[in-house]
Amino acid sequence: MADKQQKTVTGGNKPKPADNAGPSAKDKSRAASRPVATKSAGGAKGGGGGKGGNTPRPGKGGAAAARPSASRNGAYLAWGAVALVVVIIAALFIVNATKSSTQNTSYTPVTPAPAQVVQDVTTIPLATWNKVGVSSQFPVSKPTILSAQPAMTIGGKSPAMLYYGAEYCPYCAAERWAMTAALARFGTWSNLQITASSHTDVDPITHTFSYHGATFDSPYLTFKGIEACTNVPSTTATGCSGYTTLQSPTTEEAQNLAKYSSSKFLPNGSTTGGISFPFVNINNLALFSGASYDPQILAGQSWTDISGALSDPTNPATQAILTTGNYMSAAICNATKGQPGSVCTSSGVQAAAKALGISAS
Fold first, then answer.
1. Which long-range contacts (CB under 8 A, 24 or more apart) does 187-192 make?
2. Cα separation values, 85 from 35, 42, 79, 231, 232, Å
3. What is the Cα–Cα distance from 286 to 295, expressed in whole angstroms?
4. 309-328 as b/e, with b when 16 or more CB fall inside 10 Å?
5. Alpha-carbon gap, residue 172 to 277, rounded angstroms
6. Distance CA 154, CA 149 (A)
7. Cα–Cα distance between 298 and 196 in angstroms, integer?
8. Quick one: 173 exposed, middle or buried, by C-beta within 10 A (0-12, 13-18, 19+)?
9. DSSP states along 84-131
10. What is the rounded distance in angstroms from the CA atom of residue 81 to the CA atom of residue 69?
11. Which runs of consecutive H residues, i.e. helices, occur in the chain?
């Protein structure tokens, strides 16, 4: 589904052949599922009836005193059995509810991003960015670099960056990790959401962000993120490869998308007016069409798995994400004329700029 091109949009392109292709990631981290464990209830020491209860000590009351004690013990056992049944039923209900919410749903709902995930992806140490540079051991494609193009304007503001994708698209899911991290170096995210790509497309349930409803504020750059389609399957939807529609570009944005996603500017560009997901245009200078790296490297990893590893420069997924992010950062620095200096003069961004043949200052 993800590779089919439609009149309006497509599900995305397979990543272009990488310029720095290296060996595949050795370790494909997968989240381990831990079954719900319940403690078995301990039974009474003795059996039921007659001699099964505790024998009263000799003393006042004799056998008559033993009967109330046996009655109490029987009541305790009866209530204990009832409580055990209630616990078992509750446990089964919780397990079944959990399974239905994680396994039987046809899509992953969009929900607010956890604070820890946002912090992890927006505060990656500069040393980690620099250590990775553009040296990912997992293949990463460079963007297409344009020349002699006017700066992009969105809503009268320039320089600008435009993203066009869809929540169901696995290639968009991969690209958003790099884009979210790179943009955080130039401004502040608000209202980031999390979701996952289609459950039935290639690289199913790739955990990621959604930019629908999110805002990005920066003194250096204007960013517009468009999620054209949801990840909610629909048998009646048109133009979204079987998913419901979500956002549409403005006339200004649509004109930019049509122009720069064409075969005139992209080797894999459309000749019929279709746009492949994801498409990223940084100030009409750098074009990212299709995923920069294969989403397969994120398979089986949760949002916290991915974000939690972003400070580890030896992690294969982190290397792919930050290599892509450094390419994006270098293009943004070219657009902002080297601002902020702490980012644009960093060794990781400078390495990316050199690889792309552009200036980041």
1. 187/216, 187/217, 187/218, 187/219, 187/220, 187/221, 187/223, 188/216, 188/217, 188/218, 189/118, 189/122, 189/214, 189/215, 189/216, 190/214, 190/215, 190/216, 190/217, 191/112, 191/215, 192/112, 192/113, 192/118
2. 20, 13, 10, 40, 38
3. 21
4. bbeebebbbbbbbbbbbbbb
5. 6
6. 15
7. 11
8. buried
9. HHHHHHHHHHHHHHHHHHHTS-SSPPPEEPPHHHHHHHH---HHHHHH
10. 18
11. 62-102, 115-122, 126-132, 170-183, 251-260, 303-308, 316-335, 341-344, 347-356
For the record, the structure tokens of 47 come out as 């059996």
Tokens 């553009």 belong to: 134
The answer to whether residues 173 and 202 touch, using CB atoms and an 8 Å cutoff, is no
| pLDDT tens string 17-48 | 444 444 333 333 333 222 223 233 333 333 33
One-letter amino acid identity for 22? Answer: G
Residue 279 in contact with residue 257, Cβ under 8 Å? yes
pLDDT digits (tens, 9 = 90+) for 203-240: 999 999 999 999 999 999 999 999 999 999 999 888 89
